[in-house]
Amino acid sequence: MQEELESIRQEALAAVDAANDLKELQNIKVTYLGKKGSVTKVLRGMGQLSKEERPVVGELANKVREAITAAIDNKTAVLEQAALEEKLEQETVDVTLPGRPVHVGGPHLLTRIIEEIEDLFIGMGYEVREGPEVETDYYNFEALNLPKGHPARDMQDTFYLTNELLLRTHTSPVQARTMQEYGGHQPVKMICPGKVYRRDSDDATHSHQFTQIEGLYVDENVRMSDLKGTLNTFAKRIFGEDRKIRLRPSFFPFTEPSVEMDISCKVCEGNGCSVCKQSGWIEILGAGMVHPNVLEMAGYDSNLYTGFAFGMGPDRIAMLKYGIDDIRHFYRNDKRFITQFHYAKGGTL
């Protein structure tokens, strides 16, 4: 049996030395050291040996097992290193090749329009405020001179969550909250951009979700002429120095008097075309002097303080400024549309 074990060792070591891949080594390990392997078979026959022979054969069998295991481990390391070197050779990177182009994204067009308007008003001394999109009926309506049952509420097409909670229909509640926060004892000069929601059928010019920017200036001796000058500056900075504006009487429950502002049509330069419906003017925003009731509910003395407010839609401004014919383009994430408005190196479109 000792001769048999020595023969197995020599045969196994020769097989390991001749192996060319890891799979072949695994087969050799199973053949000689597995449950049905050659060394195991010899060990199972030790019961037929005398007591004196068993320790000798057992020690030799262990030495044979260890020798075969060591040879397999060493050859495994050699083959793995060779495989690694071959893989590295195949995957060599040519560092002289030019890099792959990286396509850098940028802010969405609406985001950039909002930031452009924010920069303009910040430069005029306004602060930017934000508020909740899920609003209370009080701040969305009542604090803005729209008590329960007021017919103008029907114009808002509101998404109600409960009798007192709703998705805000405009960003004006932020104005009411800010005035209340200031306690009626200090001036307010702010704009509030954000998303608003109304029950509307989506089409080329309407959406159930859109963006608004509303502004508010409250202080002593604020006049309609201040409002007109502010809006004129806004129109020229956003649409170009050659833009003209006009104010038309209108009605909003939270302002009195109220106006709507038009800008001269960029397409026809005010001469009349299909874009402006032959009028030469395009409506852009609503505004007016803050209603005394709104001031009083926020804690301001309407005999001492006056103010103006305005509200505009960045969606509509972007459509007019860049000739976009469908508001739904802003929300479809179509790269063909979005990539048309990447920032140039100088930071402009």
UniProtKB/TrEMBL annotation:
Span of domain Aminoacyl-transfer RNA synthetases class-II family profile: 73-320
Presence of the UniProt keyword Disulfide bond in the record: no
Enzyme class: ligase
Origin superkingdom: Bacteria
GO terms for MF: phenylalanine-tRNA ligase activity
Residue numbers binding Mg(2+): 256
Cofactors demanded by this protein: Mg(2+)
Keyword Ligase among UniProt keywords: yes
Pfam families in the cross-refs: Phe_tRNA-synt_N, tRNA-synt_2d
SUPFAM superfamilies to which the protein is assigned, alphabetical: Class II aaRS and biotin synthetases, tRNA-binding arm
Residue runs in coiled coils: none
Cofactor mode of binding and number, as noted: Binds 2 magnesium ions per tetramer.
Localization: Cytoplasm
Enzyme Commission code(s) on record: 6.1.1.20
Keywords associated with the record: Aminoacyl-tRNA synthetase, ATP-binding, Cytoplasm, Ligase, Magnesium, Metal-binding, Nucleotide-binding, Protein biosynthesis
Quaternary organization: Tetramer of two alpha and two beta subunits.
Protein family (similarity comment): Belongs to the class-II aminoacyl-tRNA synthetase family. Phe-tRNA synthetase alpha subunit type 1 subfamily.
Name the UniProt record assigns to this protein: Phenylalanine--tRNA ligase alpha subunit
Organism lineage string: Bacteria, Bacillati, Bacillota, Bacilli, Bacillales
